[in-house]
Structure formats: C-alpha cells, structure tokens
Amino acid sequence: MRLKSSESTVRIHDVPLAHDARFDEEEGRGEGASSSEVDLLLELDPHLVAALSPDDPLAQAARNLRAMISAARLENGERPKVVVLLGADADAETALLSANVAIASAQSGWRTLLVDTDSADPVQHRLFGLPYYTGTGQDDGGEPELIVRASSIPRLALATAKHSTSASASVQMHSALRQVTEDFDLTIVDASHRSRSSAPTYGADAAVVVLRRDFTAVADTQEIVHSLRTAGTAVLGTFMFK
C-alpha cells in the first residue's frame, strides 16, 4: 500500500519485530571489535542491526534512508537537520527504524541526536542498554527537562524528556529541542507513539511516515501527510514494513 504521489517509498521484508515495542533479549556481537567494544555492543538490543549486523536488510535500508536525508534539500537549499519519523499503526517499527537510522548517521560521521518523544514509556533507552531516567517533569506549563546522554555508539547521543502530563507537552518539546539541536549535525525524532488525533512535528524540518503493509489505512496516511504539510514540514517520503 502506498500513496499515489512522487514521494519515495523504502520497503523491506521479513524483519522480526515485537509489535508492543518490547524486544527479545538476545545477545548480539560485532565482528572484529576489541573486547571493550564488544562489551559495549553486548548492551545493545539485537534489533539494532545497523551496529551489529551491517548486511541485514534493515541495516541497509537505514543507510539508504540516511543517504536520502543527506541528499534532501529544503526550500532554502539547506539539508534538513531535524527529521521526525511518524508511525501510522507502526509504533514498534518506527521506534526501531529511528534507532537504526540514527546509528547509520553516526557511523557516517555525523554528530547525531536521537530523541524519544514518549516521556511516559520511552523505548530507546532499552534498545541502547541505558538506565531509565525516573524523574518527573513539571505540570504547571513549564518546559520539560530534556535529558541528553551519550550512547555506546560514537557520535550518537540519546535524549528523553522527563515524564509530564501537561497537555502542552508537545509544544514544550519544540522549545526544549531548539536548545540542543544546534550541537548536532542531525536530529532524529522518534514520534512512534504519536497521538491518534494529531501528527506532532516537534519543530522538525522534514518527516518520514512509517507504514505497515496491508495494515495501515490509506486514509490514516493521507491524514498524517496533510497534517505535516499544513504545519510546513517537508515530507521526504514513506517507509513500508511488511
């Protein structure tokens, strides 16, 4: 299933995923790594194939998507520096794709920031073997505190907001991100757990919509694309999981 447009669609097949975003706890190991590097790689979830299995179809697709981001140009002629990945009935797939694209970007030499926008139940820290930050944010309209931590992947940092129940948390995230994105060449925003009633862009320059083949409704995809364009966010294309 794909939109009838000129937007590109990257399609991969037979990638094992847990659809509740809770992934298997298998051990992964990189080839040709030192003992200290292997220890760091063992902390990674085995589905982070961009770091652990470079020949995996998902790793190759992540590199292709990074290349597409590198080649994209906004109306002002600049490359997008903040790219949001939005899931259309593909929460786990979107979170996993965001992580692998971030790894591929860091491997290419870019200083990369991966942002987990789900402050209530973040996923990215589990994928990268990092402890969960348990602090709580303010519910009085103040900006949520954004926690930025280094990962075991060189040039890749992870950011998670403190948990907040504020109705304006999405808007507050825009401001929080602006304070840190200038320190990075590329920011990947994992918006896999977006609200069904809206398509938040988190101040992104561009977006990729992640779909599930034979599951995601065309109307849902069109709604997301329309919301993004209305907000002035360039749509780079769609990414389809089988």
Tags for this entry?
242 residues; 29% helix; alpha/beta
Brief sketch in words of this structure:
With 242 residues, this protein is α/β, with parallel strands linked by helices.
Mean pLDDT over the residues = 76
Gyration radius (Cα, Å) is: 17 Å
Helix content: 25-40%
Biggest sheet strand order reads: 1-8-7-2-6-3-5-4
State which percent range the strand residues make up: 15-25%
Sum up the overall morphology in one term.
globular
Can you count the helices? 7
- Which structural class do you get from the secondary structure elements? alpha/beta
- Alpha-carbon distance between the termini? 10 Å
Q: Helices and strands, in N-to-C order?
A: EHHHEHEHEEHEEHE
Q: Biggest sheet, open or closed, and with what strands and sense?
A: 8 strands, mixed
Low-pLDDT runs: 1-38, 136-140
Number of strands: 8
Mind explaining what this structure looks like?
- It is a single chain.
- The protein is an alpha/beta fold.
- The protein has helices at residues 35-41, 49-52, 57-71, 91-107, 124-127, 169-178, 218-230, and strands at 8-12, 82-87, 112-116, 146-150, 156-161, 186-191, 206-212, 234-241.
- The protein has an 8-stranded mixed β-sheet with strand order 1-8-7-2-6-3-5-4.
- The longest helix has 17 residues, at 91-107.
- It is globular, with a radius of gyration of 17 Å.
